[in-house]
Every structure is written in structure tokens, then in C-alpha cells.
From TrEMBL:
Record's protein name: Pseudouridine synthase
Keyword Isomerase set for record: yes
Catalytic activity field: a uridine in RNA = a pseudouridine in RNA
Keywords in alphabetical order: Isomerase
Family: Belongs to the pseudouridine synthase RluA family.
A Pfam family assignment: PseudoU_synth_2
Source species of the chain: Fusibacter bizertensis
EC number: 5.4.99.-
Top enzyme category: isomerase
Molecular function per GO: isomerase activity
Domain spans labelled Pseudouridine synthase RsuA/RluA-like: 93-243
Key word Isomerase present: yes
Length: 301
């Protein structure tokens, strides 16, 4: 079991089930470390048994301590004084609330003023310095939870969970029209129609995309729903609901603009994952932002 809580040090106490194995085998199985990361740390002589460097083929006994030191990869984003709400933080993972209209990562069109720059400023205030590794991303106009890994190990573990569709991704949305069924699943493949298109479509040759939904509240011409993503394709929710004739309110790309809100009414309110070291289920929640609450107030009024 892991016995420490330091971002750049993984320290594991050998259990009875590991006794008689080689260090490298314990790293790969019980510690869940990728062969790529093991190789990198081995080359840098950053793997220790009972605090002594040596061969990764040494045999371990119950109670031995295996230590792996991770490289200190520095943050490279310029700090911008942008407030960011931290929803959850431990030695491996940070979860923050991304407000609408904030780009996640610098691009040619948005070299600064992004969530990455805000997180860099947060590090500066906390007197920390680590590479910002985004686990998930949200569209500029979608609000909600973004996960960040603080080290290469955490990035590997949570990314593997993402690829296996084991990370819970839950959204609220307000859609045009009244959904007939109170719950359902949209299982339709998605891809670009042409290689350079920003817009995605439902297309037979696309990647499998599965969206589950449940009605929270029905109005005269709109529906408030909660959504669980089984897969995580680009624009998946927006494409799926537009395709079935219920585009997200305010989605000017896949539907139409709204006089009530100047973005799509889509918010990631909960994400769940297994913590990298203990593999314990962790859930993070984020409250509905004011602009979506304002739309709901209008609809209820």
C-alpha cells in the first residue's frame, strides 16, 4: 500500500501478496505504474528499495519500502491574475470550476487569459511549481469541472480511467422543446464531416458515442435535464441533442442563439474517479452558475 502523500514521491510498503516478486513487478502490478514511467525513472536512477538505489530485479519481502521519485517538470504557462475556484485538491489531483467564456489552454487565438494561466497564478500564490496536466477539457462556453494532474503518475492513472470510460462525467443542460421520454440513451457515432471542420455530426463512419439523459424538469417549450457521458467525444452532448431535434439553449453552432443566455446552457456539475494511489472513489461537485439559474428562473416564472 502507498504510505505517503507527496506529489513527486511514490512510496509503497510491500504487502504479503507481493513478497517474492521483483521490484519491477511490484511497480507494474500493485503500484499500477506504466512501463514508460518505470523506464524513465529507472534511467534516471530514481527507484529505491529500502532507500537504496539498485537493480529493479531485486526480490522484495513483506514490509519492504519501494520508493519512486518522479521528475519535477516545471510549469511553463505565464501567470495571469485570474481567480479560480478550487473544488478539490490532494497530492496528485486538483479539480477546479471553469467559468463560461474561459478557454482551457493557450492557443494562437488565445495566448493568455486562459484557465492554464489562471492555474499558473494559483501556483505562484501557493508557492508551488508543477507542470499543469489537464485530464479533461471543456468548450470555451461550457462551464464546470476540469481535472488537473499534478504529476505524471496521476496523469497516467486518471487518463487510463478516462480511456476505459471509468470516470463519471455528469452535466446539466437546458434543451429546446419538450423531451417525450423522461430518460433515455442516445447511441449514435460522431465525427467531423470533413477533416478541418470544427463542427461535428452524427455519421455512420464516426466513433461510437453514448449519452444517457434524465429529465429533471419540463416546461412549456424547454426541458431541464441531467446527462451522463459514457464516452467523451468532442461536442458530444451538443451534437447528440441537436441531432434529435432538441439543441442546447443558446448553442449558436448546433442550434440557435438565445436572448436569455449568451452561451450554450451546458454545465459539468459532477465528476467521479478513483484516486491514483488508494483507488478510492472520489466525487467532485460544482454548483450551477448564475446564468443558467437565471434561465431556469425565467422558465419557472
Amino acid at each position: 500500500m502507498y504510505i505517503n502523500k507527496e506529489s513527486l514521491r511514490l512510496e509503497y510498503q510491500v504487502e504479503a501478496k507481493d513478497a517474492g516478486l521483483k521490484v519491477i513487478d511490484v511497480l507494474a502490478t500493485s503500484m499500477n505504474i506504466s512501463s514508460r514511467l518505470i523506464r524513465k525513472c529507472k534511467n534516471h536512477k530514481n527507484i529505491f528499495l529500502n532507500h537504496k538505489n539498485g537493480s529493479v530485479n531485486r526480490i522484495v519481502e513483506t514490509g519492504d519500502i519501494i520508493t519512486m521519485m518522479l521528475d519535477h517538470d516545471e510549469n511553463t504557462f505565464e501567470p495571469n491574475p485570474i481567480d479560480v475556484e478550487v473544488l478539490y485538491e490532494d497530492c496528485d489531483i486538483m479539480a477546479v470550476s471553469k467559468p463560461p467564456f474561459l478557454v482551457v489552454h493557450p492557443t494562437k487565438g488565445h495566448p493568455e487569459g486562459t484557465l492554464a494561466n489562471a492555474l499558473s497564478y494559483h501556483q505562484y500564490q501557493q508557492k508551488q511549481n508543477y507542470k499543469i496536466r489537464f485530464i479533461n477539457r471543456l468548450d470555451r462556453d461550457t462551464s464546470g469541472i476540469v481535472l488537473i494532474a499534478k504529476n505524471a503518475y496521476a496523469q497516467q492513472i486518471i487518463s487510463e480511467q478516462m480511456q476505459a470510460d471509468e470516470v463519471g462525467k455528469h452535466y446539466y443542460a437546458i434543451v429546446e422543446g419538450v423531451l417525450k421520454d423522461d430518460s433515455g440513451t442516445i447511441d449514435l457515432p460522431i465525427d467531423r464531416e470533413a477533416e478541418l471542420d470544427i463542427k461535428r455530426i452524427v455519421i455512420e463512419s464516426g466513433l461510437q458515442s453514448v449519452t444517457h439523459y434524465e429529465v429533471v424538469e419540463k416546461f412549456e417549450n424547454h426541458t431541464f435535464i441531467k446527462i451522463e457521458l459514457e464516452t467523451g467525444r468532442t461536442h458530444q452532448i451538443r451534437v447528440h441533442f441537436s441531432h434529435i431535434g432538441h439543441s442546447i439553449v443558446g448553442d449558436s453552432l448546433y442550434g440557435k442563439p438565445s436572448e436569455w443566455i449568451d452561451r450554450q446552457a451546458l454545465h459539468c456539475y459532477e465528476m467521479s474517479f478513483k484516486s491514483p494511489r488508494e483507488m478510492e472513489k472520489t466525487s467532485v461537485r460544482c454548483k450551477i452558475p448564475a446564468d443558467i439559474e437565471s434561465v431556469l428562473k425565467r422558465l419557472r416564472g
